[in-house]
Amino acid sequence: MHTPSLSLSSTFIPFLPPTKTTPISFTIYPQKSIQCSSSTTSTTHPKRKVWKEGEFPASNVKERSSFGYQTEKKRTPIKNIKKKLDRKNAAKAWVSTVTESLAECIDKKQWLQALQVFEMLREQPFYQPKEGTYMKLLVLLGKSGQPERARQLFDKMIEEGLETTKELYTALVAAYCRNNAISEAFSVLEQMKGMPLCQPDVYTYSILIKACIDDCQYDLVESLYEQMDERLITPNTVTQNIVLSGYGKAGRYEQMEKVLSGMLVSTTCRPDVWTMNTILSLFGNKGQIEIMEQWYEKFRNFGIEPETRTFNILISAYGKKRMYDKMSSVMEYMRKLSFPWTTSTYNNVIEAFAEVGDAKNMEYTFDQMRAEGMKVDNRTFCCLIRGYANAGLFHKVVSSVQLAGKLEIQENTHFYNAVIYACAKAEDLMEMDRVFIRMKDKHCQPDSVTYELMVEAYRKEGMNDRVYDLEQEKNTAVAV
């Protein structure tokens, strides 16, 4: 096994000073002083200098005189040219600044501000939005839970005459899929089918398949596969990995095995390390260690090299089954192959000791993690809090919460669930109530785990009225 290889110039013409010549003067007579009859066959005119191109200092604007000669005429100077140039430069600077502001709003995922800045730009006659700008805004609105605004922006784009592409349609499909608006996404798919230049491709179908998998609508998945086959669109490895993961989580192992077998014999969507990680994670989380190890060897024989995440999956699986010798062997193997231990690696080890309340080894791992300068995160402290609670060291739960505050660790729903778990373990229902109230004050939405922990704690104490209130609150939250 080997370590995967990550894996305007211009020509300068010098200025030549003009040669000294005797100045030539000539007179142009007014039209009324010339008496010319039709019988005149010749007229004496002053000798005229024939200037070479670019030699005469005046501009090259010419007009025909009364004599029929071409005479030079200086261009009328533009009034207030400096003001006009200043205004032009100021307009360019304004556009540049507002465009940068739009890009910054998109990067910071500030969808409302981004739309406001975009409207300011669109009102300017000199600004012409491009396809890439609309693409970024559609993606941003989809990620921000604003699929209807994405549709409005898309329709406005069409009204302004911008040519639509399959990429823009696919971005709109993704916006609906991200927000579980599957019927609207299929409606956009039908629109694409009727446009010769915007036909759906493998990326469009992959997004729809993922949405159907996440929503457990497996019949629609099969329908999409049939459509792809009719259109001669071959699923790629990403598509198949999405389906593998979905079937595995739903326990549809026969369908999962069918997809995986097809990948192993395919020449266009062969399994990759992501496929390997998906299968190993599936059996590892189910505690089926032997099957996990068999698949690991199959993928290795297939020529797929593991990565850091692969080893972290193995460590997590061994830790949950308390197979500490194998867990240590994987970590040593990572060092041997120069694979770095990551935050996830340490978190997996801390979680393994936390589940059994092994505070000593848990603390040792945490100290080593910080000594190596590894970044601790929300999951690290969730594991520590649960570990100390399982060990009955509730004073260390308090110190861990305080340390998390000093390190500005994000207090999300998982964090508060860990603290509520510790309060329930300590049978401190008053403190548990205070944590629950603080959780709501911090706008962290309680989930099913939160209510299950609290209901179980109150049920043990026979507080049935409180149990009833929490169950009603949980049903209301789920309905919302």
How would you describe this structure to a colleague?
- The protein is mainly α.
- Among the domains are: 87-200, Serine Threonine Protein Phosphatase 5, Tetratricopeptide repeat (Alpha Horseshoe), CATH 1.25.40.10; 272-328, no CATH class; 341-401, no CATH class; 411-480, no CATH class.
- The chain has 22 helices and two strands.
- It has helices at 81-107, 111-122, 131-143, 147-159, 166-178, 182-193, 202-214, 218-230, 237-249, 253-265, 273-285, 289-301, 308-320, 324-336, 343-355, 359-371, 378-391, 394-406, 413-425, 429-441, 448-460, 464-479, and strands spanning 62-64, 70-72.
- It has a two-stranded antiparallel ribbon.
- A hairpin with a 5-residue loop joins strand 1 (62-64) and strand 2 (70-72).
- Residues 1-43 and 58-74 have low confidence and may be disordered.
Write the layout of secondary structure elements.
Blueprint: E1 62-64, E2 70-72, H1 81-107, H2 111-122, H3 131-143, H4 147-159, H5 166-178, H6 182-193, H7 202-214, H8 218-230, H9 237-249, H10 253-265, H11 273-285, H12 289-301, H13 308-320, H14 324-336, H15 343-355, H16 359-371, H17 378-391, H18 394-406, H19 413-425, H20 429-441, H21 448-460, H22 464-479
Antiparallel strand pairs: 1-2
Helix pairs in contact: 1-2, 3-4, 3-5, 4-5, 5-6, 5-7, 6-7, 7-8, 7-9, 9-10, 9-11, 11-12, 11-13, 13-14, 13-15, 15-16, 15-17, 16-17, 17-18, 17-19, 19-20, 19-21, 21-22
Pfam families: PPR (PF01535), PPR_2 (PF13041)
InterPro entries: PPR5-like, PPR_rpt, TPR-like_helical_dom_sf
GO molecular function: mRNA binding
